[in-house]
Structure formats: C-alpha cells, structure tokens
Amino acid sequence: MRIEAPAAAPSVARDVELRPFNTFGLPGRAAQLVVVRDALEAAAFAASPLAALRPRLVLGGGSNIVLRGDFAGIVVKVEIVGRRLVGEDADAWYVEAGAGESWHEFVRWTLAQGWPGLENLSLIPGTVGAAPIQNIGAYGLEMAERFHALEAVSLNDGERRVFDREACRFGYRDSTFKQEAADRFLITAVTFRLPKRWSPVTGYAELARELAARGLAAPTPLDVSDAVMAIRRRKLPDPARIGNAGSFFKNPVVDAATLARLAAEHPGLPHYPQPDGREKLAAGWLIDRCGWKGRDLGPVGAYEQQALVLVNRGGATGSDVRRIAEAIQADVRAKFGVALEPEPVFV
Ligand code: FAD
Ligand code: EPU
C-alpha cells in the first residue's frame, strides 16, 4: 500500500485490502482510502476533490456492510475519538462521543461513570457514529430512545450540521441516513440523553428470563448489561472468530390480515404488536422453518444458534453471500408469502 500526503486533504492510501475492515471477512480492494481523525479533517476531506470520487463509502467498524467486491472509488474511515459529559439538568445527563469510538466500550464507560440507560445495547459491534444510521436496537431498547443530537459534516459542501431526534426520522432499523440523506453526511459525534430516573427495561422475554435465572429481581444497570452480554455470547457468533454482519434480514412488519392468515396456517408463529397496529414477525423463525438453520450454500451458512445470522465458513465473497441470501428470500416467499429485506448495506 502506497501513502501520499497532499497538502490540504487527509493522506490517501491506494489499493487497500478491505477484508480486515469488514466483520464478514469479505474480500475487496479499495482504490483509495482516507482516515479522518476529527471534524476538521472530515470537513477538509469534504472540501477536497477526493470527496467527488464515486463510489464513496463512509466506514466505521464494518460490522453492517456486505462488500460486493473491489471498490473503485474512495473509502473514508472514521476514527474520531473522545467522550465527555457535555451537560446535565434535573432529569438527565448529556454525554457525547466521537463517531469512531467503539459502541460497546462507550456503553460500558457510561455505566462505569454512573450514567445508565444504554445497557440493553451492550456488545453491539461497531462505532458510535454508525449507531444512528440504522438506529441500532436490541433487547427491548432502540438507540433513538436515548438519542439527543448528532453532528455531521455534509460531504457535498463541508458544512457542519446538527441533527436533533426529529431530523433523524428514526424508525425500526431506519433513519434519514438510510433514506433521503443516504450517503450525504459523515457523522462526527453523537450526544445521548441518559435519564437520571432510571428503571430497568426488562420487557424482552429472554432478558427477563436471564435476569430471573440470575436471581436478580431488582437488577442494576450493570446487571442488565452483563445479562445482555451473556445472552448475546450464547446466540451470536463472535466476528473475531467467525465472519458475519449480525442479523442479515430485518424482521418483516405485516398488516393484521396477513398476520391472521399466517398465524392460522403456522401455529407458534412469533409476532410482536407495533404501535401502528401492524405486527413484526421473526425473520429467524421463518428462515428456521424453511430448514435453513445450520445449512450452507457454498462457503456461507445460516448460523446454528440463530438462523437470521449468515456466517462466512471461510473464503466467502460478496457473490456467495448474495447467492444464499437470494435462496433464503425465495424459500421464505414461497412458504410464507413474506418478503425479507436485507439489513446490512451492500457496498
Ligand atoms: P459500518 O458497518 O462501518 O457501516 C454501516 C453503515 O453506516 C454504512 O452505510 C456506513 O456508510 C454508515 N456509517 C458508518 N459510520 C458512519 C459515520 N460516522 N457517518 C456516516 N455514516 C456512517 N445491529 C443492531 O441494531 N442490533 C444488534 O443487536 C446488532 N447485533 C450485531 C451482532 C453482530 C455479531 C454483528 C456483526 C452486527 C450486529 N449489528 C446489530 C449490526 C451492527 O453492529 C450495527 O449496525 C452497527 O451500528 C454498525 O456499526 P459499524 O461502525 O460497524 O458500521
Ligand atoms: N427464532 C427461531 N429460530 C432461529 C432464530 C430465531 O425460531 O433460528 C425465533 C426465536 O426463538 C424467537 C424469535 O425468533 O422466538 C426472535 O429471535 P431473537 O430473540 O433471537 O431475535 P431476532 O428477532 O432474531 C432481533 C434483532 C437483533 C437483536 C435481537 C435482540 C433484527 C433484525 N434483529 O433478532 O439485532 O440483537 O432481536 O433484541 O431486528 C442485528 O440487527 O444485527 C441484530 C443482531
């Protein structure tokens, strides 16, 4: 890899192998790659001719992308660090972190400081800056519920912009950054609002069971974090050992009539009521019932403990991932009449 250092813009590396930078372990070479370490560097990049290159990818921890192959344009790797208390009122602490901070380390740090609220989201891989992109969620909590605001740099003109919760348009695994604003902003920092009147969020049945099994009738924030970590370690493959990008499909949300039809045909179908009257199905259950759990197609398989997670058995490429994903989508459509939409971003 050859390094050049143009005067004003961040230094550029050329022909960089991206396999170490995506948790699926998929191969592909980036024609150019720059690292940004603070908001000023992000703005300098945006103002430079490099930002006009296409395709262009803002990269965090690479735990929610599927690399299709070589990347002919430019990758901007975000390594902005720093975390601090930026405010406090009667009701909450306001805590900011740089976009390149590890999400899980940030969560554990907030707990160590005595600022609870993010514990249900423990052990989710990736960076703080990527958390708002799909509004990460797990075990009964979505990031949006603890979000205050974020700072971003427009990649079109280098302008700094602040997004409050409304501007982010958060939904289930969704935000404006996957819709209208897709590929237009580099998030530099995120501020969370952590409530002082804390109570544990234990509505997720599996988490409630885990806490009960540990004899914790009145769990502390750290107890909840530890319980979530234990469940996740049992069910999800560790990307350091087996390549994956977490859930490969979103859980489909269907209308009441569709649910009634499916529930009549398939006793035991898990479903979760949504605020708008629709029902969320469990994609993992649907895939499992199609016989995919633990099954491979080429070098990619559906994980033994969680059929919703596709894993790289070794040497897989983006096309291998696409092939099994399409086969699973076809089977679920044929058996249940339900369309599955991938959760990770194909790049
Ligand atoms: P990347 O994969 O690097 O990027 C993902 C997307 O965000 C890309 O579109 C990228 O361009 C964009 N992006 C990244 N950083 C920035 C930035 N600073 N500014 C602008 N755009 C940016 N997700 C959940 O919601 N819940 C879970 O429980 C969960 N469990 C997981 C378990 C495993 C084992 C794995 C591998 C993944 C899991 N995920 C989960 C998915 C993943 O951890 C999250 O989506 C995470 O937020 C991705 O962070 P990242 O830094 O790796 O993002
Ligand atoms: N199930 C099966 N077989 C399987 C997998 C699941 O029958 O192979 C059933 C389970 O028994 C359960 C239901 O499906 O009844 C739901 O399973 P689980 O509790 O494991 O959660 P999930 O819906 O599969 C979602 C998120 C995860 C998140 C967990 C915990 C999505 C797409 N996935 O998974 O997020 O960690 O809930 O909240 O919403 C991710 O986004 O990458 C991710 C891992």
What does this structure look like?
The structure is a single chain. With 347 residues, the chain is α+β, with helices and mostly antiparallel strands. 24% of the residues lie in helices and 28% in strands. It contains 8 helices and 21 strands. The strands form 6 sheets. Strands 1-2-3-6-4 form a 5-stranded mixed sheet. Strand 1 and strand 2 form a beta hairpin. Helix 4 packs across helix 5. The longest helix has 19 residues. It is globular, with a radius of gyration of 21 Å. The N terminus is likely disordered. It binds flavin-adenine dinucleotide and uridine-diphosphate-2(N-acetylglucosaminyl) butyric acid. The site of uridine-diphosphate-2(N-acetylglucosaminyl) butyric acid has 18 residues, from strand 14 and helix 7.
Question: Can you give me a brief rundown of this structure?
Answer:
With 347 residues, this protein is α+β, with helices and mostly antiparallel strands. The protein contains 8 helices and 21 strands. Strand 1 and strand 2 form a beta hairpin.
